[in-house]
Design a protein that fits this description.
By secondary structure, the chain is α+β, with helices and mostly antiparallel strands. It folds into two domains: 2-37, no CATH class; 44-177, 2-Layer Sandwich (Yope Regulator, Chain: A). It is built from four helices and nine strands. A six-stranded antiparallel sheet has the order 4-5-6-7-9-8, covered by helices on one side. Strands 1-2-3 form a three-stranded antiparallel sheet, with no helix packed on it. Strand 8 (135-138) and strand 9 (142-151) form a beta hairpin. The longest helix is centred in the last third of the chain and has 21 residues, at 154-174. The N and C termini lie far apart (71 Å).
Length: 200
C-alpha cells in the first residue's frame, strides 16, 4: 500500500494481484486508488469557546451536548470560510409521555400547536439580530426543535446555541397544562420552579 497525502484528504494506492484461471496461472496487477476524506479539527478558538462555557460538554469532534438543561440538547458545528454554523437540536417530551394519566388526543394536539407557535419567536431572544426558521417535528413521544444559526464570533455563537436550548425547555415548562400528575423529570422541574417562586 502506497500512501499519498493532500490537504484535508488522504489517498492510498493499493496493488491488487488477480490470478487468472488458465493453464499458465497468469497474474495481473491492478492499482486501485482509495480516497479517504478526513474531517479537519475544529479551530482551537471554537473548542475553547465550548470548553469555557458551563452549559456544554464535547461528545465527538464536532458535536456538543447540553449539560445545563433537563431535556436533550445538542449542537453540531461546522466551519466554512471563517463562519461557524451551529445546528442546534433540542427535544422535549409530549405531555402524554410524562403524565400518569392518559392525555386526550385533542389536548395533546392543542398543546403541540401552541408549542409550535411559541417557538417561532425564538429569534427575539438574542442580543444580535438573527432571522431564524426553526423546524418543529412531532415524534412518537417527543417533539424536536431544530435551529441553524451562523456567526463569525465563536463565543457569541456558543452563547446563542445555549440560549436556543434554554428557550425550548422554558417554552415547554410554560406550556405545561395543570390538572395532571407529572412524572420525572417534569415533576422535578415544576417543583424547582415553585421553590424559586417562593412556594406559590
Amino acid at each position: 500500500m502506497v500512501p499519498e497525502a493532500s490537504y484535508g484528504t488522504h489517498h492510498w494506492l493499493i496493488d491488487i494481484m488477480a490470478i487468472h484461471d488458465t493453464p499458465f496461472k497468469r497474474a495481473t496487477f491492478f492499482r486501485v486508488r482509495l480516497l479517504f476524506v478526513c474531517m479537519s479539527e475544529l479551530p482551537s478558538r471554537l473548542r475553547r469557546a465550548f470548553s469555557d462555557h458551563t452549559a456544554f460538554e464535547q461528545e465527538s469532534d464536532t458535536r456538543f451536548v447540553s449539560t445545563a438543561t433537563t431535556f436533550e440538547g445538542r449542537v453540531e458545528v461546522t466551519e466554512t470560510e471563517g463562519r461557524f454554523r451551529f445546528a442546534v437540536e433540542s427535544r422535549v417530551p409530549l405531555l402524554g409521555a410524562v403524565t400518569e394519566e392518559e392525555v386526550a388526543d385533542v389536548v395533546e394536539d392543542g398543546w403541540y400547536e401552541t408549542f409550535e407557535l411559541r417557538t417561532e419567536d425564538i429569534g427575539g431572544i438574542f442580543r444580535t439580530d438573527r432571522e431564524l426558521s426553526p423546524t418543529v417535528s412531532r415524534h412518537a413521544d417527543s417533539v424536536a426543535v431544530e435551529v441553524v444559526l451562523e456567526d463569525i464570533n465563536p463565543r457569541r455563537g456558543v452563547d446563542d446555541a445555549a440560549a436556543v436550548i434554554d428557550y425550548v425547555e422554558g417554552t415547554f415548562v410554560q406550556g405545561v397544562i395543570p390538572g395532571y400528575t407529572y412524572t420525572d423529570p417534569v415533576d422535578g422541574i415544576l417543583q424547582r420552579a415553585r421553590d424559586a417562586a417562593g412556594g406559590r
